[in-house]
Design brief:
Layout lengths: L6 H12 L7 H16 L3 E8 L4 E8 L13 E3 L5 H6 L6 E3 L6 H11 L4 E10 L1 E11 L6 H32 L9 H12 L8 E8 L2 H8 L1 H18 L5 E6 L2 E6 L3 E2 L2 E2 L2 H13 L3 E3 L2 E3 L3 E8 L6 H17 L4 E4 L2 H22 L3 E10 L5 E12 L3 E3 L5 H6 L3 H22 L6 E6 L1 H5 L3 H12 L6 E6 H6 L1 H14 L2 E7 L5 H7 L4 E4 L1 H4 L6 H16 L3 E4 L5 H10 L3 E2 L8 E2 H9 L8
Parallel strand pairs: 14-15, 17-19, 19-20, 20-21, 21-22, 22-23, 23-24
Antiparallel strand pairs: 1-2, 1-6, 2-3, 4-5, 5-6, 7-9, 7-14, 8-9, 10-11, 12-13, 16-17, 16-24, 16-25, 17-18
Helix pairs in contact: 1-2, 1-5, 7-8, 8-9, 13-15, 15-17
The structure holds ligand C2E and calcium ion (2 copies).
Ligand C2E binds next to strand 17, strand 19 and strand 21.
């Protein structure tokens, strides 16, 4: 720093020192400026204080030179105006510069300064930082007495206003940053805040060691919102945020990821010398969540959570991947019924890999002919004669073997492949059926094809069905499309329209998995359907479970009242078969009669008299 020769040069020099400072560099810059002032004016010390209006106190921000021997606590650190000496008190609301010179009535102040700095007699120039009101001041202290010229004071006023501007800018930047990284409702970090934090903790070369990430998904918050309203949901979320803050270490980052999802990032810590595993932390959180009660409309409400846990290593794992892994694990916890913790492990990793693989290759699998249909016969329970076959899709995967629909139907639905897959299934099933009837003109059975919700509502669906019927020369009355009950409930208006058009073609409609959906009866009244298929869930334990018996009996009477065909699926035992016959259900499919089989096998069954009685 070269020698500064004039007050103008001083002001310019300070301006350049303060120009580019940010929150990280501001204290160093303040201290440097104070040093410049001390040296220029030939005084002994300079300092900057800010006023804390919340606590009515003044706080030491920076000073030069440092006082290595300052007592602890420092009598000049935080000073409360309420019990301050006359000099501090005079500074509280100061709007114009003031020079304090040694005076007998300032003895108390003199003693405070002497205790803190060793200076016995001082004079001091004080220049306030003014932003409407005083937000602090710069002080320059000289041991003994000193005169301050108007020019000197004017230069100090200009410099103080620079301090004010820098301060205002940094406060604004900080609050912007806080807002951008925090959730307005709960005050926790938000998605961006926690992502940045995790990014920092996972940076290569970070010495903090492994990082644990907890993904917390509340169970059934939606029900609370629906029943009590969103204010209630918000109140619950705020209480939950408090719980999380209380139960977790202060160095854990707790964030609201969105909606009813929270992400916690923590460094495994030691308690009583033993390292607490992230799994144990998650269990503690789970317990705390379950016992958090919020009074809403007179009811004490509590929720449970599903928590997924994963561990990540700096320099190895990516933020995106780690959070996705914890999310996956939370999903596993949720599937086990909620209120539980699941670790991201090799099983989930393998399933993830599989999902990605499926998503990537399903499209080409359809084009490359890797899909196949198996057929499961449906029989007349009284005779064992085959009354229909259901086409069930499989994927002959080049490396993973024969995949069941559960491994790829959902993925197809969520990635726009449902229509393409569905079209292939319908065309292939009708092509096969067309071939059978050419060889077996007397064949009088129905071919059942499953239709996914997305597929049904696609605009060209009816067109696809109608064209496939023409191409294969299969009579439309031979085709029955199966739609799950849940799909039917989704958009009744549009569904009813599509079903009516299909019925006009001559195709019949069955409601699949009947009994698992909602308000079945109401929909049966408005939807054009021909048959109900009782879900396997109710048939499985039909021989022993009384409530299942009751459900099946009521479905049977429903079918009768609406004059619908009734088919049971999942018949595995003679007892179940007997029970079905007892309630008047005469048609069924199930392992008892036959598993789904490849086309050649079903063709054999159909081409000779076959009676599948299961006995
Ligand atoms: P779903 O329509 O309820 O089909 C019956 C499922 O139950 C088939 O499983 C069948 O193999 C199985 N099953 C039949 N009898 C028994 C039994 O006695 N015991 C047991 N435990 N299971 C039995 P799969 O083939 O794995 O198909 C599962 C589901 O995938 C189907 O359920 C259907 O919803 C869907 N799906 C199958 N093929 C297609 C398709 O081409 N398109 C669409 N959208 N969905 C399909
Ligand atoms: Ca089905
Ligand atoms: Ca089913």
């Amino acid at each position: 720093m070269g020698r500064i020769r004039s007050l103008d040069a001083l002001v310019t020099d300070v301006a350049s020192q303060l120009m580019g400072v940010d929150a990280a560099s501001v204290l160093t810059a303040y201290t440097r400026v104070l040093r410049t002032l001390v040296e220029y004016f030939g005084v002994d010390a300079g300092y900057l204080r800010h006023t804390d209006y919340d606590h009515r106190s003044t706080v030491m921000i920076a000073e030069w030179p440092a006082r290595p021997d300052a007592p602890d606590p420092d009598p000049l650190g935080v000073v409360y105006f309420a019990d301050a000496d006359p000099v501090f008190a005079a500074c509280e609301h100061l709007l114009l510069p003031k020079v304090f010179r040694p005076r007998p009535d300032e003895e108390e102040y003199r003693r405070r300064v002497e205790a803190a700095s060793g200076y016995a007699v001082t004079s001091m120039s004080v220049v306030p930082l003014v932003q409407g009101k005083s937000i602090g001041w710069v002080g320059l202290i000289k041991s003994g007495d000193r005169d301050w010229s108007d020019q000197e004071t004017n230069a100090l006023v200009a410099i103080a206003s620079m301090f004010t501007q820098v301060h205002a800018r940094i406060v604004a930047e900080e609050s912007l940053r806080t807002a951008a990284e925090h959730d307005a409702l709960t005050g926790l970090s938000n998605r961006r805040g926690v992502t940045d934090d995790l990014e920092r903790r996972l940076r290569d070369g970070q010495s903090g060691g492994p990082v644990a990430v907890l993904f917390l998904d509340l169970d059934r918050l939606k029900a609370l919102n629906d029943f009590y309203g969103h204010t209630a949901g918000d109140a619950y979320l705020c209480a939950l945020a408090d719980t999380l803050r209380a139960v977790l270490d202060s160095d854990a980052t707790v964030s609201r990821w969105g909606g009813d999802e929270f992400v916690v990032v923590l460094q495994p810590s030691a308690i009583d010398g033993k390292t607490v595993s992230p799994y144990d932390v998650a269990l503690r959180v789970l317990e705390a969540v379950a016992t958090t009660k919020v009074l809403i409309a007179g009811d004490a409400i509590n929720r449970t959570a599903s928590i997924g846990v994963t561990t990540a290593y700096p320099g190895v794992d990516s933020v995106h991947e780690v959070i996705a892994n914890a999310d996956q694990a939370a999903l596993v916890a949720k599937r086990t019924g909620g209120n539980s913790v699941a670790l991201f492990d090799s099983t989930i990793r393998a399933r993830n890999a599989m999902r990605n693989d499926v998503e990537l290759h399903l499209h080409s699998a359809i084009e490359d002919g890797e899909l196949v249909l198996h057929y499961q016969p449906e029989v007349d329970l009284r005779t064992g004669a085959i009354t229909a076959v259901e086409a069930l899709v499989r994927w002959q995967h080049p490396s993973r073997g024969l995949l069941p629909p559960a491994d790829f139907i959902d993925i197809a639905e969520s990635s726009d492949l449902a229509t393409e897959l569905g079209r292939w299934v319908i065309e292939e099933a009708l092509r096969a059926y067309g071939n059978w009837t050419r060889d077996l003109p007397a064949l009088d059975i129905v071919i059942r094809v499953n239709v996914s919700p997305a597929q049904l509502l696609a605009t060209e669906f009816v067109e696809i069905v109608s064209r496939a019927l023409q191409t294969s020369s299969v009579r439309p009355t031979r085709l029955c499309l199966e739609i799950t009950e849940n799909a039917v409930v989704q958009d009744t208006g549009q569904t009813a329209k599509v079903l009516t058009m299909l019925r006009e073609l001559g195709v019949s409609i069955a409601i699949d998995d009947f009994g698992t959906g909602f308000s079945s009866l109401a929909h049966l009244k408005i939807l054009p359907v021909d048959a109900l298929k009782i879900d396997r869930e109710f048939v499985e334990h039909l021989d022993s479970d009384h409530s299942d018996q009751a459900i099946v009996r009521s479905i049977a009477s429903l079918a009768k009242a609406f004059e619908l065909d009734l088919i049971a699926e999942g018949v595995e035992t003679i007892a179940a078969k007997a029970e079905l016959l007892a309630v008047g259900c005469t048609r069924a499919q199930g392992y008892l009669f036959s598993r789904p089989v490849p086309e050649a096998a079903i063709r054999d069954m159909l081409s000779q008299p076959t009676f599948l009685t299961g006995e």
